[in-house]
Every structure is written in structure tokens, then in C-alpha cells.
Amino acid sequence: MVCIPYAFSERCSRSMTLSVLHKRIWINAPLGEVWSFFSNPYNLKKITPPEMGFEITNQPSIPIRNGMHIHYQVKPIFGIPLTWVSEITQVIEMEQFADIQIVGPYRYWHHLHRFYETPEGVLMEDIVHYALPFGWFTGAIRKFLVQPKLENIFQYREQSIQSIFQVPKKNT
Predict the structure, then answer these.
(1) What number of helices (H) and strands (E) belong to the chain?
(2) Taking the chain (172 residues) in consecutive chunks of 10 residues, what is each chunk's mean pLDDT?
(3) Residues near 146 by Cβ (< 8 Å), separated by ≥ 6?
(4) Which of 108, 142, 156, 159 has the greatest CB tally within 10 Å of its CB?
(5) What domains can you pick out in the chain, each with its CATH number?
(6) Residue 33 phi, psi dihedral angles, 5° rounding
(7) pTM of this prediction?
């Protein structure tokens, strides 16, 4: 396993098995409007499944900025509340930003959000690298619990974005 170069090396070790989730969605809106929506941390609740019980517990600034921390509570499994703290990194306005987990359920979490302006609208790309903390149980837990949950979350997210921005049906 090789840690991704833009991640914090102290959070990523050679003993981790990284999993990757890669999603793309076309958004039929101007880049400025899309960036404005996604750089507002309070909009995350609008694209998170309600059963996740997502609540921001601090007062993050708008728009996001490098080094900003967002504290929230989620209930990802069986309604059990978990604290999650993300740090925003790699903010390049109108192009990309990333969030890394500082506190939360994963051993490692890095989520890169990229935005590409095209003649057809904006192509938004999500690339998530994550590792689980379960030792030799990791493979089974990822396959039967975590991966399906993440797929469900991103499917809900895509449907929400389609509703918010009236996305055309050419997603990949």
C-alpha cells in the first residue's frame, strides 16, 4: 500500500489497506453557482441521507477555507451517534477542495472534490480514499457494511444534487 501524496503522511501508514470510491456527476449550472453551493458546509446536510442524522456541531465559516475544521455528529450505523471532525485542505477556488477526517470512524479518510467547467455544465468528481480500523476483519466489514453504506450515501447525494440543480441524465 502506498499513501497518496497529497495526504498527511502521519495519518497514512504502510500497514493500511486503502479503498477508493470514485464518483462523477454532471451538473447543469454555472461553475460559480456549483462552487458556492459546495463550498458552504451547511449544504452538506441537504445532500446527506436523513437517516444519517447529520448535524454540524460548531460554527464553520462560509465559504470553506484551508485549515478550517467542521465538527459534526452522524449516525451511520444502527442510529449510534458518532463525532466526526473534518479539516478542509487543498482549497483552490472554483477548482477543488478536500476534506480529511481528524476524528471519526475511519482509520483514514481523504475526500477530494473536483469541479470542471465544460460547455455542458460542471463535471463534479469525488474521489474518496479510506481505510478501516478493524484489522483482519476489514475486508468483510468493508464489503458487507461500509461499501454498501457509502454507495447508498453517494446515490442519495446524486439524487439530491439532481433535484437541486436539475442535473441531466448523463452521469457516470
Answers:
(1) 3, 7
(2) 45 70 94 97 96 96 97 89 96 98 94 95 95 67 67 94 76 51
(3) 19, 130, 132
(4) 108
(5) 18-165 (3.30.530.20)
(6) -70, -40
(7) 0.84
